Write the structure tokens for this entry.
Amino acid sequence: MLNVMDRYAKEHHYKIHPTKTEIIDCPKHKSSYNWTMGGKVVKTTDCSEHLGIKRTDGKEHNFNIKERIQTARRTKYALMGSGVHGTNGLNPAISYQIYKTYVIPRLTYGLEVLPLTKSNIEELEIFHRKNLRHLQSLPERTSNAVVLLLLGALPIEAEIHKGQLSLLYSIVSCDNSKIKDVMNRQIATNYDNKKSFFSRILNILEMYDLPSINYLQKNLPKRDIWKEETKKKVNQYWNAQLKSEALDKTSLKKMNI
């Protein structure tokens, strides 16, 4: 195993430090084998962190959701001293812009690559809507659509979709042939696998009426144009969804949506 790991690192020009490296070992099939590299034992664990994302043998999205919410909550508390707290604080519109700049990126960091479930998304949405209610000093029973519409805010699901569309552009526009080969193979073999990023992104492109991946590979726009187009499409879709939801509620008939 020493030769395999050392040879892999050398072939791919990786500088791997054996004492700083961890190997994820499945708890159900835990191996008694000691992994070594350069004569030094490499630590095995059932959960490791890489670039701020928890990696495990399974259900790592559950670990990361809790981590993201805790990080976002700490960031929100740190902003309270500047008036981002609703009652007797800054104007709600200004508070939301600060919240959008500092809290949302920490809440959604790295989630675009994880296969989130509906319950994961709802957990994020509950935290998000609760914060927006507080910023506007609205009662807990206020309609979800109103909470978002009054600020021109998007659901967290939409924020994650924007991150996924940005990641797709980075993959399609890169010059690395190996990455493109992986993308084409994933599209061909995992188009119906909900855990695959490319399966999810195909549905997202269709959801927002955006060009297909094949079209983008042949007619890739500039990054700023793609960013503006995706932002426009995402905003239009959710604006229509939220207005439709608000119109269906008799309690909001006097609200100018």
User: Anything to note?
Assistant: The CA atoms of residues 4 and 190 lie 28 Å apart. Residues 223-247 form the longest helix (25 residues). The beta strands are 22-24, 36-37, 40-41, 43-45, 47-50, 53-56. The longest strand covers residues 47-50.
